[in-house]
Specification:
The complex is a heterodimer of chains A (70) and B (785).
Chain A lengths: L3 H14 L6 H12 L9 H15 L11
Chain B lengths: L2 E7 L8 E3 L5 E5 L6 H12 L31 E7 L4 E6 L5 E4 L3 H4 L8 E3 L5 H4 L2 H12 L2 H20 L2 H19 L4 H15 L9 H17 L3 H13 L4 H29 L2 H10 L2 E3 L6 E3 H44 L4 H6 L4 H11 L4 H4 L3 H21 L5 H72 L5 E7 L9 E6 L2 E3 L8 H17 L8 E4 L7 H14 L5 E5 L2 H11 L4 E5 L19 H6 L5 H22 L17 H15 E4 L4 E3 L1 H23 L5 H16 L13 E3 L4 E3 L5 E3 L5
Parallel strand pairs in B: 3-14, 3-15, 7-13, 13-14
Antiparallel strand pairs in B: 1-2, 1-4, 4-5, 5-6, 8-9, 10-11, 11-12, 16-17, 16-20, 18-19, 19-20
The chains are: A mainly alpha (70), B alpha+beta (785).
């Protein structure tokens, strides 16, 4: 049996090979969750929504035009 | 983790405390039906499954099995309790109170709940359960074995995360808005590029903001143009302002929203009636369905009454869910239409409420348009967002559309300056939208990239799960195939294996070759006996995966549907694959018990028998008949006569079985005297026949097995003198009893081959009328008796 850590490395390598662009911070956040609570239990919807919002904020910064009237 | 003992008190069939003591070794327990064998297994299941015993869970047993677990005749003041003690003296102690609540203690309490029941206990009625499970249930049952729980959790969390990112970033709405912006740009500018649009805005900037420098970016350039246009509009005459105000009103699109709401309402009306009827038909028998879904592989369709496999029922539910989602989509369309209509009506109210168009309103002194204005003023536009009836739509058509049309007529001949301002404003607004759309497109692209990234991670994780499942399943398949091969050597059913069906995720099934033809399910051809045999192989292959934890295996009456030949092969399987594990076998089959005693009696197995059950107050009782020479030696110190007597009893039983196997011919005795023959009766005959029948190979020829015959003769002599004395008087000293046990044990040992360790009756060459050990070194020629 392959060690637990290896499947994660394999999955991340495959995702990167498929050319999915994302800032390093996003990769780091997802990887950290995958190494931690994501594999320990099913995350409750509210907590998952919080994580999703964090990722969106990191990946999709609020555009200048949406910050208020110019 | 091996079990030292299991003790019961007033639990199931037990009354006063009674314990099964395998002492961390393997054990075979014989007991006639209802003697209480399964009570010990029930205790194990109760501890493993946190108070649940599957075969006891029914409508009369109580929520916490309080009506099923205690002995029905438990006296007041007595407790229903049990304990399981392990090799390292750690324990699980559980007391079940009257109301079914539990008081538990012991250092193994938490650890034992992590044991997988389906890899620990196999009962008779569970033999074929795995085979009858659906593909999905098989997958769930095997999932703990695959060691992929963490990956499954991670994949599911990733799936949900992608969904959350999609919904929380308003991806669908953003994409819809973007597509609208692209359409607007096409209408206003045609096929021009961004630079050309920016050039037009720059021209307007020069026109309306001549005194301002170059703005920082395109959007602030547009903002400055809008401000310049506003300033210029402020300088217009009141007539020009009125025209502009009315033109804004005339541009409002209201008809398309009314049509959208009506279309969605018609589609909803068509979908809702049958939907509600069907929902009721499905929902009413839900309670019955829930119970059946968990208990069996099939459910009865509440509509047609036919039995449907759960997997098909799930497909039915999937179709229903799709229909519901479609209806939900129509609801959403209708809500969007109502929102748009609400916005337009609010814009109309705002437009006609402006001071610029007051003079136009004042001109409408009477007539239908005045009533329309009054209707608009009194209309609660925001309420349309939540509810919009056909009457509301009709009123909007009748009262508000004429106002927009009238504003259009009144603004048809616009003064040139106002017209120019209007057109320029249109250009700058469209430019703003186009520029914003570029950012919007980037935002959508990034959100989509995030969703895609998470989805690819999920996909990659699932690929890993599949790869690893295949690897583990191949290992388990190999074990199942090997075990099947041991139980069914040289039979036309082979290549039994597990496989992952190509067409479905999270599914496992069993394949085999039936007389050379590949079949995708054992249920197509296998008889009940063979299915049970396969179920036993699957269970043992799964249990084998626990080897590193050295957990015990319980087999409770699992050979009932196997014929004698196949039953006989189970010991081979246990010896080959589970000699290092603790196996507890419970059986009501006396023949099999006896057979196992002979075949497995190598010091690592103990054998105990239960007495027939009499009353609940007497409860479960062990038979105290001695069954091994080891047991006999226990008495040597304190009661040598008893030890001698035990040796004689063992010889009585063992020699009866041996005589049967060697086909020893004894004089016929009437009635039960046949069963009361003593060891001397058998030994006398065996020694006499042995001269011609019992042979040992010298490497070239077979000769009479002289050593064996002498040892058997010695045992016979001592049994006559000391054995009988031990039985009928106390006149046997320790040295005599020791010698007796030693000689008897040695005599029986001669029936086993010194090389291959198989009994002389291991293989029967019927044609030559002889039996022999595994390697052929010793043989018994019963045809020469």
């Amino acid at each position: 049996m392959i060690a637990d850590a290896d499947w994660l490395a394999t999955a991340i390598r495959k995702a990167r090979e498929r050319g999915t662009a994302a800032p390093e911070a996003v990769w780091a956040m997802i990887e950290s969750h995958l190494r931690g609570k994501f594999r320990e239990r099913l995350i409750p919807p509210k907590e998952l929504a919080g994580i999703a919002l964090e990722l969106i904020a990191e990946m999709v910064p609020t555009p200048a035009s949406a910050q208020g009237p110019t | 983790v091996r079990i030292k003992s299991i003790g019961l008190a007033w639990f199931r069939g037990a009354a006063e405390p009674v314990s099964m003591e395998p002492n961390s070794n393997s054990m075979v327990v014989y007991g006639p039906n209802a003697s209480g064998k399964s009570s010990f297994v029930d205790a194990v299941e109760y501890a493993l499954n946190g108070g649940r015993i599957r075969h006891l869970a029914h409508e009369y047993s109580g929520k916490h099995l309080q009506n099923a677990v205690p002995n029905t005749h438990k006296p007041q003041g007595e407790k229903t309790e049990f304990f399981i003690e392990f090799k390292d003296h750690s324990k699980v102690e559980i007391e079940i109170r009257e109301d079914g609540s539990v008081a538990s203690s012991g250092s193994m309490l938490d650890a034992i709940t992590t044991w997988d029941y389906r890899r620990t206990v196999l009962r008779q009625d569970e033999l074929a359960a795995f085979i009858q499970d659906t593909k999905g249930e098989k997958y769930s049952a095997l999932l703990p074995l695959l060691g992929l729980h963490q990956m499954e959790s991670a994949a599911e969390n990733l799936r949900q995360l992608a969904k959350n990112v999609g919904s929380l970033s308003n991806l669908e709405q953003e994409k819809a808005a973007l597509s609208q912006a692209v359409a607007n740009r096409q209408t206003t500018f045609g096929n021009v590029n961004d630079d050309e649009i920016l050039e037009k805005v720059s021209e307007l900037h020069s026109k309306y903001c001549p005194d301002k420098g170059t703005a920082k970016n395109a959007l602030s350039l547009c903002a400055e143009v809008t401000a310049g246009l506003g300033a210029r509009t402020g300088q217009l005459s009141s007539e020009q302002k009125r025209y502009l105000g009315l033109r804004a009103v005339a541009e409002l699109e209201i008809k398309c929203h009314i049509v959208a709401i009506r279309t969605a309402s018609i589609r909803l009306a068509g979908a809702l009636d049958p939907l509600i009827t069907q929902r009721l038909a499905v929902l009413q028998p839900t309670e019955v369905l829930i119970g059946k879904l968990t208990a069996h592989g099939e459910v009865q369709c509440p509509s047609c009454g036919q039995s449907i496999r759960i997997v098909e029922f799930r497909e039915h539910i999937r179709v229903e869910l799709e229909r519901l989602r479609e209806v939900k989509g129509i609801f959403d369309d209708r809500n969007v239409g109502m929102g748009n209509l609400c916005d337009v009506v609010k814009a109309l109210k705002h437009g006609l409420g402006r001071a610029d168009v007051k003079s136009w309103r004042d001109e409408l002194t009477d007539g239908p348009l005045l009533q329309c204005l009054a209707h608009l003023d009194n209309l609660n536009a925001e309420a349309l967002r939540a509810a919009c009836s056909e009457q509301d739509l009709q009123d909007i058509e009748d009262k508000l559309l004429p106002l927009i049309e009238a504003a259009g007529l009144a603004s048809r001949d616009q003064p040139p300056d106002a017209q120019q301002l209007w057109d320029d404003n249109g250009i700058v607004e469209a430019a703003k939208t186009s520029i914003a759309a570029c950012e919007q497109a980037a935002t959508v692209a990034r959100a989509e990239a995030l969703v895609s990234l998470i989805s690819i991670l999920e996909q990659a994780t699932r690929e890993e799960i599949r790869l690893r499942s295949n690897a583990v399943i191949a290992e388990i398949s190999q074990d199942i195939g090997n075990m099947w091969g041991i139980l069914h050597p040289q039979e036309a059913i082979d290549d039994v294996h597990l496989y992952l069906p190509e067409d479905s995720d999270k599914a496992i099934d069993i394949g085999l070759k039936f007389h050379g033809k590949e079949l995708y399910s054992p249920r197509l051809t296998l008889s009940e006996g063979y299915r049970n045999s396969l179920g036993l192989c699957i269970f043992l292959a799964m249990a084998k995966r626990e080897a590193k934890n050295d957990r015990p295996i319980f087999l409770d009456d699992v050979v009932i549907s196997l014929d004698r030949d196949h039953r006989g092969m189970i010991f081979e399987l246990l010896k080959k694959e589970f000699s290092q594990r603790q196996v507890i076998i419970l059986t009501h089959d006396r023949d099999w018990y006896t057979e196992l005693r002979q075949l497995l009696d190598d010091g690592t197995w103990s054998f105990k028998a239960l007495l027939p059950y009499e009353t609940p107050k007497i409860g479960i009782r062990w038979s105290h008949k001695t069954t091994t020479f080891g047991d006999a030696r226990v008495h040597l110190e304190a009661r040598p006569d008893s030890a001698g007597n035990d040796a004689r009893k063992i010889m009585d039983v063992e020699l009866a079985l041996i005589a049967e196997r060697l086909q020893i011919k004894l004089p016929y005795l009437r009635f039960d005297r046949n069963d009361r023959r003593m060891s001397h009766d058998f030994l006398e005959r065996i020694v006499a026949d042995g001269e011609r029948c019992f042979q040992k190979s010298t490497g070239k020829v077979f000769e009479t097995h002289r050593d064996a015959i002498e040892a058997l003769g010695d045992a016979d002599k001592l049994l006559i003198s000391w054995g009988n004395r031990g039985s009928h008087s106390f006149d046997v000293v320790r040295s005599e009893a020791t010698k007796l046990i030693e000689v008897c044990e040695k005599a029986l040992e001669y029936f086993k081959c010194g090389s291959c360790r198989k009994w002389v009756w291991f293989a029967d060459a019927e044609a030559s009328e002889l039996t022999q050990c595994g390697c052929g070194e010793v043989r018994w020629r019963y045809g020469k008796a």
